[in-house]
Design brief:
PH-domain like; 33 strands; Recoverin, domain 1; 7-stranded antiparallel β-sheet; elongated; about 750 residues; alpha+beta
Length: about 750
């Protein structure tokens, strides 16, 4: 590491440290010995040895140091205060449990050189710590491009490396920066010089401009100036004063600036790139919602055909698929059970070539992974195609493997008038399946154990191409249901949906229906307000059409907009729909439960997704997004010489009136630091249900644009002001250091009903 950038050699404090000094190491009033200390050439290691024997030595890294205390600021130095004046004394404080190092210099100048020099080095290492990932990223690229492993590159090789890194720049400008970094004038850059070259390349003019707008002296932001920025730009009101102080302490690398309650450009950029400067309100990432409401009042992260890793016809059934879904916060998994050849039920997609796994192994996996990322309940949606004997085997496995985890009786033995809450059901696994009778009649031995196959169709997939025989014939059939299995169904009894009127007059709160995507959309269009009211009391599950044999997904937002809680998606298929699911459930501690807006929890609600302007609390908002710049976007095409032409599209998903998108122009040949400075405007009619998706694509005039990265979040979780969006890849994983820099403002519409010209999705 070059400790002081380009002026390291000129810094008198660093020079003296590298030359070395004899300092007195003090362990107690009686143990005070001279040692020779010096800073090694790497600018990171302090080395010392006994001054008189010249034998054994010790060393430590500057990164191990937390701070330098000046004067008598340790118990040991206070004990020798009469012998050595404060101006000669200082203490090196280490991170963690390692003891302090108390030192006494020969002169005040020498003491100051070490105090100031070490502070500068700590400042540098702290800055480097913030950028460690970035530097590692750069070093990795260098190593990749250094084919002959001689640790250096000429200008031609550097140009080639820049193209690999998605940078296409003017040759004269690149050569000028290369010459600045080539301090030895050798015509080559070694790895550290290349890191320096890269840093000159990545200076953020757009961040500097924002900083200059608020900095009186152009060097730092005073506490008052930072408060003004937070209040006026970041739209923080009362908390701006307290928050400004917090941010300085959290991100300001300069100790002297921190002492003056000020923030340098370095600290400002670190803040903007941090979690505090992210588009997502940090406090809403934590578990913060009321978890004591009925289950029907929450959106629940849900998986369809959870056992599949691939498509619906030939894909592999796998326990790993359950583990992956549960690790993503999924709280409703599907288990399709069929008779196994040896008396053990199996799980697979019936009448297809998908592979089979044992039911008992699926249940063991649920036991081991259900509550790793969330303590709230898991619903097992059971599609039961087994004979009576194997149903009994399933019931036995559920009881024996899950034990107390399995909810096998109503809470407190009471027949519920409303569903219990996620809080009440913590650590419990609930079975969703058909049931003989209801909770009120579960001890009635006179009930038949036959259930209508009509319910099977509703609970299965009427759109499936795999159904056998005419639908009419199938509905006449009856199937036998095991009483042992039936008794394990408590709060999620599967029933066929007849009508909203029938449900209103006679349905129990623990009865729930499944709807295919087309049926749910039809109900939403024809009777949206009724569907919302129904979902305030009952649970609804929606699932993809059986015609989606490629495991593609439907837009879950259409279902959430009517209050459907269990919107089952193919978790194994990445893309827009899973981005929306991840976006919604990223909030509230990623626990898999998100409280629905209050107007969707009210049994007398008049809200309809088709007519949002008719609800009493209707208050549309204007969303204005200035897309400023991008940073280090990944390459899409790995061909040599290929550079992306990025554009940014903002998409709004919500009630039909809110579905919109708009995009910036594309920037030719710059995935490294593209600047758009374009503003996109939207009107949001139901902010509580809207999701905002930022997509970066590589423009291609001849064919479909290539996906580069995205980030999706609920409108209600947006932090206004200057923010960074840390992009995710298609699988929803971070792709550091790729980001967008934007400025967001949210305001009320001045005229009711005013519209904004945006392109419909």
């Amino acid at each position: 590491m070059d400790p002081e950038g380009s002026c390291a050699e000129d810094d008198p404090h660093i020079k003296l440290m590298m030359k070395g000094s004899t300092l007195r190491k003090v362990k107690s009033r009686f143990w005070k010995k001279q040692r020779h200390f010096r800073l090694l050439e790497d600018g990171m290691t302090i080395w010392y040895k006994s001054g008189w024997t010249g034998q054994g030595h010790s060393k430590f890294s500057v990164s191990d140091l937390e701070a330098v205390r000046e004067g008598h600021q340790s118990e040991v130095l206070l004990s020798i205060a009469e012998e050595f004046p404060a101006e000669l004394c200082f203490t090196l404080v280490f991170h963690g449990r390692q003891g302090n190092l108390d030192l006494v210099a020969e002169s005040q100048d020498e003491a100051q050189a070490w105090i100031q020099g070490v502070r500068k080095l700590i400042h540098k290492t702290q800055t480097m710590d913030e950028q460690e990932r970035q530097d590692q990223w750069v070093r990795d690229w260098f190593q990749k491009a250094d084919k002959n492993k001689d640790g250096k590159m000429n200008f031609k090789e550097v140009k080639k490396l820049l193209k690999m890194m998605n940078v296409d720049m003017n040759e004269d400008h690149a050569l000028r920066l290369f010459t600045m970094a080539d301090k030895s004038e050798s015509g080559f850059l070694e790895i550290e010089q290349f890191v320096h070259f890269y840093k000159i390349l990545t200076q953020r003019d757009e961040v500097w401009k924002v900083f200059q707008d608020y900095s009186g002296d152009g060097e730092t932001l005073t506490l008052e100036e930072l408060e003004s920025f937070l209040r006026l730009e970041q739209q923080e009101a009362e908390q701006s004063s307290h928050h400004a102080t917090e941010l300085i302490h959290r991100y300001e690398p300069s100790e002297s600036a921190m002492k003056q309650s000020a923030m340098t450009l370095d600290g400002f950029q670190m803040y903007l790139c941090s979690l505090d400067g992210s588009i997502f309100k940090p406090e809403l990432l934590e578990l913060h919602q009321d978890m004591n409401q009925p289950l029907s009042h929450y959106f629940i992260s849900s998986s369809h055909n959870t056992y599949l890793l691939e498509d619906q016809l030939r894909g592999q059934s796998s326990l790993e698929a359950y583990i992956q879904a549960l690790k993503r916060g999924c709280r409703c998994v599907e288990v399709d059970c069929w008779d196994g050849s040896d008396g053990e039920p199996v799980v697979y997609h019936g009448h297809t070539l998908t592979s089979k796994i044992l039911f008992r192994d699926v249940i063991s996996t649920l036991r081991d992974y259900a509550f790793k990322v969330s303590e709230f309940p898991v619903i097992v949606s059971l599609e039961n195609h087994c004979c009576l004997e194997q149903q009994n085997v399933m019931a036995s496995h559920l009881r024996q493997i899950l034990g107390d985890m399995l909810l096998s009786a109503p809470l407190d033995g009471q027949i519920p008038e409303r569903l219990p809450s996620p809080q009440q059901l913590r650590g419990k696994i609930l079975l969703k399946a058909k049931k003989i009778g209801g909770l009120e009649t579960c001890v009635d031995e006179t009930l038949t154990d036959e259930v209508s196959e009509e319910e099977e169709v509703a609970d299965g997939d009427p759109e499936s191409p795999n159904t056998e025989g005419p639908q009419e014939e199938k509905k006449k059939k009856k199937s036998k249901l095991s009483r042992e299995l039936s008794d394990l169904v408590i709060y999620c009894k599967s029933v066929h949906f007849h009508s909203f009127e029938q449900a209103r007059s006679s349905a129990k709160c623990y009865e729930m229906s499944s709807f295919s995507e087309s049926k749910a959309k039809k109900l939403s269009k024809e009777a949206g307000a009724e569907f919302v009211r129904y979902n305030s009391r009952q649970l609804s599950r929606t699932y993809p059409s059986g015609l989606r044999t490629d495991s593609s997904n439907y837009n879950p937002q259409d279902m959430w907009s009517t209050g459907c809680q269990i919107v089952a998606l193919n978790f194994q298929t990445a893309g827009l729909e899973m981005d929306l699911n991840d976006g919604l459930f990223r909030q509230n501690g990623s626990c898999g439960f998100v409280l629905k807006p209050d107007f969707m929890r009210d049994a007398s609600s008049r809200f309809s997704p088709e007519r949002p302007e008719e609800r009493p609390s209707y208050k549309p908002l204007r969303l204005s997004i200035q897309v400023i710049s991008g940073q280090q976007l990944p390459k899409v095409n790995q061909k040599e010489g290929s550079i992306v032409d990025p554009l940014v599209r903002v998409e709004i998903y919500g009630v039909p009136l809110d579905q919109a998108k708009d995009e910036t122009g594309h920037i030719n040949n710059n995935g490294f630091n593209p600047v758009w400075n374009q503003t996109l405007n939207f009107v949001i009619h139901v902010p509580e249900l809207a999701l905002v998706r930022f997509v970066v694509e590589d423009y291609d005039k001849a064919s479909r644009n290539d996906f580069i990265g995205q980030f999706t979040l609920p409108f209600t979780c947006i932090q206004p002001g200057y923010r960074h969006i840390h992009l995710l890849c298609k699988d929803g994983m971070p792709i550091p250091p790729s980001s967008l820099f934007i400025n967001i403002s949210v305001s009320e519409l001045t005229q009711r009903g005013q519209t904004q010209k945006v392109q419909d999705l």
